[in-house]
Every structure is written in structure tokens, then in C-alpha cells.
Amino acid sequence: GESVGLHLPTLSVQEGDNSIINCAYSNSASDYFIWYKQESGKGPQFIIDIRSNMDKRQGQRVTVLLNKTVKHLSLQIAATQPGDSAVYFCAENIGGGADGLTFGKGTHLIIQP
Amino acid sequence: DTAVSQTPKYLVTQMGNDKSIKCEQNLGHDTMYWYKQDSKKFLKIMFSYNNKELIINETVPNRFSPKSPDKAHLNLHINSLELGDSAVYFCASSQERGSSSYEQYFGPGTRLTVT
Hints:
The complex is a heterodimer.
Chain A: E1 4-6, E2 10-14, E3 19-25, E4 32-38, E5 45-51, E6 56-58, E7 62-67, E8 72-77, E9 86-93, E10 102-103, E11 107-112
Parallel strand pairs in A: 2-11
Antiparallel strand pairs in A: 1-3, 3-8, 4-5, 4-9, 6-7, 7-8, 9-10, 9-11
Chain B: E1 4-7, E2 10-13, E3 19-25, E4 31-37, E5 43-50, E6 53-57, E7 64-70, E8 73-78, E9 87-94, E10 105-106, E11 110-114
Parallel strand pairs in B: 2-11
Antiparallel strand pairs in B: 1-3, 3-8, 4-5, 4-9, 5-6, 7-8, 9-10, 9-11
């Protein structure tokens, strides 16, 4: 079965609020995690990544948290904007690089005005 | 400049036909991939190629065959198309193993509809 999954298929938030998208993984050997954003009709776009030797990593308006104890990954988006509406995927890599990414099922983030 | 491009963007064909989807990347990456995204948005790796060598093949039917004429191209050939092949196919590329990041750059996708 798939080793990466998401808790909620749809997340609705008010514009300006913070969004938190969660992801669980089952393979403790995973050493790299990545979040992608996919807008309708487009390919996945890189948001942020994190290695297993880190607990937190920040980008522009986004933060990824990794809890290896419970095999949990989250993406926090600050001050959510209408342009953040998309499907968000977490993915993991085992072994690195050319082995490909294992994707979770995706969470649809809906921004309410 | 388009980093990863795919053609065609839409492909409608009948069962039993043979079709190809082309992919090109201008990032100088050494590894390219094909993913399939089903109607439920689930993305699954199909193939990856590194220096013209097939790295993985995730139980994909042998009707699907990747062809890499050079490091910048990875085309997907599909024989005897079936209804279940209808999906969006994404090409991606990344730096080879040993890079500091395993980020994969995705193309815009090819929506294949088999009737």
C-alpha cells in the first residue's frame, strides 16, 4: 500500500487565516520529504522540502514541520491568499534522487473570502 | 523559458491505438520521470531514466515503454491503448543522486482520453 497519506481531503479556510495541511507517512526509512502545490490544469509545483535530519524549515509564508517520532509532516501557510487555492501533495523519497517520489493523495485547499 | 515541456497537452484516441507523448527538459538534469495521475488526483511514479538507463518501473504494463533519445528527452510510448489508460501523464526531471535537493520539476501534463 501507499506509505504517504493525508488526514483531510479538503480544507476550507478564511482568507488571511493560517492554513495547516497534515500528512502521515509510514516508512521510517524515508529521508527526504517535499510539498507540492498543484493548481487546476497544471503540473505540481515545488513549495518546500525537508530532510529527515531536520524538524522544521521555513520558506516564504510557508513552514514545514517534521515529527519523525509519529511519522507526521505538516505544511503551514501563513496569511492564506486566494492564490493559495490548490491541491497540496506531500511526497517522500527513500534512498534519494532517482528512485522517484511517493506521493500522498492530496488535500484540496479552498480559500473563502 | 519552459523548464519541462510536454506535447501534446491533450490526446483523445480510441481503444487499441498506439500513441506517444513527448517530454523535453532544458534544465540539464540527469534524471527524468513519468508519473500517472488518475481521476482522484493520485500521482504515481511509472518510470525514471538516468543517463539512458531505466532506474525503476513500478509494475507498469509492458504496453508502456519509455524512450530516451538523449539526456534532455524522455518520451512515453503506449501500445494497444485501453480505457483504463485515461489519465493525466506528467513528465518530471531532477538532478541525479548526490545532489543536495531531490526536487523534481514537473511538466504541464498530458491529458489522455481513451474512448
